[in-house]
Amino acid sequence: MAIAKVMGIETEYGISGLAVTDFNPVLASSLLINSYAGTLRRIRWDYEQESPLRDARGFEPVQERQPVEEDLGLANVILPNGARYYVDHAHPEYSTPECLTPRGLVAHDKAGERILERSLESVERILPPGQRLAIYKNNTDGKGNSYGCHENYLVDRATPFPRIVRDLTPFFVTRQIFTGAGKVGAEGSREGGRGDFFEAEVGLETTLKRPIINTRDEPHADPDKYRRLHVIVGDANLCEVATFLKVGTTALVLKLIEDDLLPDLSLEHPVQALHEISWDPSCRQTVRLRDGRRVRPLELQWEYLDHAKKYVKESEPTPEHAEVLQWWESVLSGIEEDPFSMHRELDWAAKYRLLQAYLERDGLDWSSAKLAAIDLQYHDVRRSRGLYHRLAESGRVERIVTEAEIEQAIEDPPEDTRAYFRGRCIGRYPGSIAAASWDSVIFDTGADSLQRVPTREPLRGTREHVEALLDVSETAADLISGLQGGS
Prior knowledge:
Low-confidence stretches: 62-71, 188-193
Structural class: alpha+beta
Shape: globular
CATH architecture of the largest domain: 2-Layer Sandwich
Number of domains: 2
Largest sheet: 6 strands, antiparallel
Distance between the termini: 40 Å
Radius of gyration: 22 Å
Helix content: 25-40%
Number of helices: 15
CATH topology of the largest domain: Creatine Kinase, Chain A, domain 2
Mean pLDDT: 91
């Protein structure tokens, strides 16, 4: 029986300095995060359980310890909503807390956008007059560089990894028809969109020779029971329907894989197919399967949907799954009829419609620098300037969550995963927490030694499990005593 799909999204945001002298994106990212985090800066990230080079194919290269953010003086904080907010390479990155439903994850992904927007407001109060930063939720800088929006899913360790590769690769290659963010222009030798930054079928890399299936085996949970599937092949989305479908459909397909319910739909040349589909906004390009058939991406997506419908009906007829199936079928039907009609639901279609209007009004062509600037402005996180946000404000894109739900996600952790324990502890006892990570919280209660509380089960530490204990624990020492059974 497939296990629950605990999920999260990590987004690296583009950052630029406008009229900033000697702009340094690394230092600017730290300033951005620290201005928002305030006193939470003192709680360090616990790296003890980190193993980013462990490979799902069964090996881990021997390496010397690499410098981490604290060594370099970079910002790295855990927020009371259970999220991680830090500098990754030269970008601010926001990692949502663990969520159990696609709708919950959409709310927490949107919360990340708002937190970046509020960070900008905070940092602009301390920048010299005339200088400001800009933040974009996109994936390329227009100069040949790509940065990530990664998804994470809890997967049963017993599921053979080769089966995950076989059954998930065709899905990832074709889901871009509804998850793609769209892009104007080529970058250097690149032919088209972000799909061209992927060059391998399977591999450990995330910044060079990017693979469709990433093999990082760093579960952040009990390694004997779970693996964390680290997905790097998706775009950063602003449209809530696109985000909802991205995670909701992938979670369902993973359940089908765990229960071994999918036929072999292997592509003959997955990387080439990924590129060809990304270049074709008509969604009519065919790709060759290993069995010799040529099919459109829509045909493969319809087949995945048919299997998911049967699975949900027979095994898990939940309201959450029903909502995913409803949106999945609606969007595939819309793409089948006219891909460009999906401008209310999908980023690439919304952006295309917007650009087409400028192109016709101003007599531009697709090589125009103005169109490239409009493309970038679509992704601006500031609601007063981002073109996506103007569409949302005027009711021209579909919404999944309300502003009230987003505001709650900014302040509060999800209630149905271990993120609840982490977030509530940080909110209640910030002065007594020395460090934290996804799978532990380390307390400094004034005792002779620090107290590590492991959280290796993603579905424990929920509101149901710990709210009563937190309510009666005035101090972190009280909490530790209660967790240990009292004195």
